[in-house]
Design brief:
The complex is a heterodimer of chains A (325) and B (392).
Chain A (H helix, E strand, L loop, with lengths): L2 H8 E3 L6 H11 L3 E7 L3 H18 L5 E6 L6 H7 L3 E4 L13 H11 L4 E4 L10 H12 L5 E5 L5 E2 L2 E2 L6 H14 L14 E4 H4 L4 E2 L4 H13 L4 E5 L10 H21 L12 E8 L2 E8 L4 E2 L6 H6 L5
Helix pairs in contact in A: 3-4, 7-10, 9-10
Chain B lengths: L7 H17 L1 H12 L9 H13 L3 E5 L5 E5 L7 E7 L13 E2 L3 E3 L3 H21 L6 E7 L9 H9 L6 E8 L3 E3 L1 E2 L1 E10 L6 H4 L4 H13 L9 E10 L9 E10 L2 H22 L2 E10 L2 E2 L5 H12 L5 E2 L5 H7 L4 E7 L1 E2 L7 E3 L1 H24 L1
Parallel strand pairs in B: 3-6, 3-7, 7-16, 8-15
Antiparallel strand pairs in B: 1-2, 2-6, 4-5, 5-18, 8-16, 9-14, 10-12, 10-13, 11-12, 17-18
Helix pairs in contact in B: 1-4, 1-11, 2-4, 7-8, 9-11
The chains are: A alpha/beta (325), B alpha+beta (392).
Amino acid sequence: MNIDQWVHNNTFHHGQFWDFRHMVEAKEQQNVKVSLCIPTLNEEKTIGKEVVIFKSELMSRYPLLDEIAIIDSGSTDQTCEVAASYGADVYLASDILPEVGAKRGKGENLWKAIYQLEGDIIIYVDADIKNIHPRFAYGLLAPLLYRPEIKYVKAFYDRPLAFSQGIRPSGGGRVTEILVRPLFSLFFPELTGIIQPLSGEYAVRREVLQDIPFPIGYGVETSHLIDVYSKWGMEAFGQTDLDQRVHRNQATRDLGKMSFGILQTFLSRAKSLGIMPEMPNLHPSLRQFQAREGSFEQVEYHIVEEERPPMITIPAYREKFNIVE
Amino acid sequence: MFLFMAKNNDIKNALERYRHAMADKRDILLTNIVMVGEIPAPTFEEEARVRFMVDRFSEAGLHNCSADEVGNGFGILPGTESDRNILLVAHADSIFGPKVDHTISMHVDRVEGPAVGDNALGLAALATLPLALEQLDLALKSNVILMAASRSLGRGDLQGLRFFLQNNKRPIQCAMCVEGVQLGRLSYSSIGMVRAEINVYVPEQYDWTRFGAAGANITLIDLINKMNRIPLPKRPKTSIVLGTIEGGTSFNTIATHALLRFEIRSESAEVVHDILQQIEDAIAETQSETNADIKLDVLARRKPGGVDFRHALVRRARAVMRALDIEPRMAPSTSELSELINHNIPAITLGLTESEKQSQINESLKIEPIFTGMAQLIGMLVAMDEDGRHEH
């Protein structure tokens, strides 16, 4: 598929979806349930506003969401109390599917949400968005309601627009532009059409979510893109411009850890897809330097990108959703 | 309904029902605070915020949803019978400029952010009110005009409301000004006021040795000392509020410009006039002593007036507050109320909740009292509607 053509046909702006009544009609006609999942870990400062805005605009005023759920990784602040006080369903990730054990990472929460939540579509939204607005959910949901062939809608922010001095570069953050985009360009050129492959906001049909594995750490977004692309092709993707997103900025050192995790996931996919069948064993340790009193010392981080299998392989899931082999 | 013909217990029950209805709309009301409050709206730049309000009015099915040529936003909740009109007005502008981070945060029991009380909550109340009335199945006889007023604060000098009252063709029988804070506020009269700005300029090539002065700051302080020596009568109540002082640019540069913003407030228009005259004299004296260029700009004037303490509107308001266990705090106003009084429209100003750090960037509103404040607002609206019915 021509990338430009895909970008033209499958790229949206949230402003296109201003008619909420029309969206509610489409949802009712299709008889689909929609769940909003917010993975959290110590997000008491932003979670209250996020929950109350989604509940007001997309449940009370326009019934587009059937449930709003927090999947928490064990916050030690008031995240769960604040979320519950504004009407969210609050779940502790470790309480969901206890028979498979508990792992720590955002991907774990996203994966367990597939079991816990009822929606035919699940919208994932990060909890640390300062300028939260209903568009962060409806902008991702709408393409799924209006375009049956689309299965996975990613958010992006700050669309490329002509400006006074011509065209300015636009795209993702540092890890996207320095690591992920070069990798996709080399191995999956069509995926470069996705403007912000690492954005934490996306809406996905259950039929897709249950069929793909979930790295529990940094690699979850990258693996999703590769897996969905490999199984369903570019036609399955959509992307929506949600304008600006204000959030915490991460230190370069943390981005190093993130890149390390993403690279592990990428290489493991490259191996399993036969792109790079011969690969030596990878060392799961990232080494960074820090200076202390005039001397340099090495700090070693052990980062292993564990994966959860496709949810459909979990017996309890098949039972809960009446899935027969 | 005849809420205010009813017995005390019936009044309490009705108000409690209103409070519950508002609590049911909690998520919508809080979201309205956030969404309206996060749109910067410094005076004269309220357009985006007013557009949001008009959209809300329109979505609620109100009539005549529109913005006028000075940027006021409107929606009309049509009455069932009469051609009476009740005006509910909340000012749309805030004291914070567009460069201020307008992010609002929600905690378990409070909302925090710049201008949440003045006046994001007042606007959110107007945006949510039609939905609450619908839930309560309260069909009022009177038309209710909901107005987000532009150009209210500071240099705005109530231009938005003044424009509306000068050009409006619908007769308005009574009005309520809705302010976010403080719950218990009951204003029914306006005091005399002059709002002014004094700018002190000294030339950059000032001859310091000759005049022995130390720049615009010292000149302004000298002037302020003179203002402080102006005797203020205890009756009628009178005060001079020195609101803002600015001057200079750094530690070690002699200031060439200093600024004072102040208000003279009094129950008597004559006293306000007399004090302004004395300040002008003090300016002339300081100018002759220093050769500094001192400019006085009067930005706004208010005349004292208003309805009587025993006016039906005030009695109703006190009854509603009493039934909700709200302690009324009577205070005269210099805001929208005074413009309504100028047009002989009986009006009151009410506050909706309690706040801390008022007018600061991290102003904090208590959530729970808001529902009592909103019940008070609905109770007053019903009372105004009923008064109109008896008149007919």
